């Protein structure tokens, strides 16, 4: 995955990506459990997460 940070390309081998959708740090992004990025507090994160979990639940065999 490639990010642009301060007008420089930063390429990372992303093994895990976490986005906090509940709690005090909504929008906080953690890459590979070590790189923490300031997220954007967005009220759509919780409904989008619920829709994703519902979809995953419905597609399990």
UniProtKB/TrEMBL annotation:
Source organism, top-level taxon: Bacteria
Task: Name it.
Answer: Uncharacterized protein
Q: What is the organism field in this record?
A: Desulfosporosinus metallidurans
